[in-house]
Amino acid sequence: MRSVRRWAGPALSVAILAVVIWRLGTGPFLAGLEGVDGRALLAAAGIFFVTTLCAAWRWTIVSRGLGIRLSLRAAVAAYYRAVFLNLLLPAGVAGDIHRGVSHGREVDDVGLALRAVWWERAAGQVVQVVLAIALLLVLPSPVRSSMPFVAVGAVAVLVAAVIVGRVRGRGSRWTRVRNTVVSDVRNGVLRRNALPAVVLASVLVFVGHAATFLVAARTAGVDAPLSRLVPLAMLALLAVVLPSIAGWGPREGATAWVFAAAGLGADRGAATAVAYGVLVLAASLPGAIVLVVGWLPRNRGSHARPQRRVVFGPEGAADA
């Protein structure tokens, strides 16, 4: 069963790409590649730097709340490397696992560091979904008539999650899991001095991704007004979080569909998705430098002392 789940995402991504190519041909893919120029690459690199900086800042906030230190400089470098690996390797999560494990080895707690990465990503995706639903409720799009039902469903899921979190199970294992999740969310994301910063960072990341999508659309020759493109960007970016092959598959299928539904042409949608993938991959190339530098042998004597885990007790913070 585990092997089936492991290969289900890549298989579905290949199937989606095959259907898109079968219906549209290779023309949109070539158009998306050929349209990328120096100005688009420069714009994407600048936007990517800002979004990576904000995402890394969010990661440091969540990590600090869970009791482990992480400098912003190290977080930015690790985030560049993680995004590059996510875009290069299947499944799209290998880079996040790598940065969690690497940070965990530095602070002598791999499990806690991986949980920090998980909650940092989860917080960003929750904010993205909320923003997308809010914008799609008010902006014209192919799914606007369905958005009230989506909003009600999202609220129902949130209420259910809160109820489940308050349920006290009988099994000790359930109790431990529940307590860990509640503690992580409360300390890492929802504490008073963290939540506004996490939300702000997540909003900026989302805006950056949307801006890159708009640059890709213009690069692919789409001249529709921004009022029509922004809702389509919201829908396409929601598909990006689905299991894929290094980001490819659901993105192209969803973008082709929403562009066709909006009357802009499925071929232009596919070309936009391809241009977006190329721009993001090019902008993440500094992550390859970080990866190579990490492989280079270092003088052990020059290693900085790793950050130690901070334990918060009744008398304040203390190193563990």
**Series of secondary-structure elements, N-terminal to C-terminal:** HHHHHHHHHHHHHEE
Q: What is the quaternary state of this protein?
A: single chain
Biggest β-sheet: count, sense, barrel?
2 strands, antiparallel
Provide a count of the helices.
13
Low-confidence stretches: 299-308, 310-320
The pLDDT mean sits at: 84
Q: In the residues, how many domains can be counted? A: 1
Helix content: over 70%
Task: Describe the 3D structure.
74% of the residues lie in helices and 2% in strands. The radius of gyration is 21 Å and the shape is globular. A hairpin with a 2-residue loop joins strand 1 (310-313) and strand 2 (316-319). By secondary structure, the chain is mainly α. Strands 1-2 form a two-stranded antiparallel sheet. The protein has one domain. The chain is built from 13 helices and two strands. Helix 3 (38-65) crosses helix 4, helix 5 (94-107) packs across helix 6 and helix 6 packs antiparallel against helix 10. The model is unreliable at 299-308 and 310-320 (pLDDT under 50).
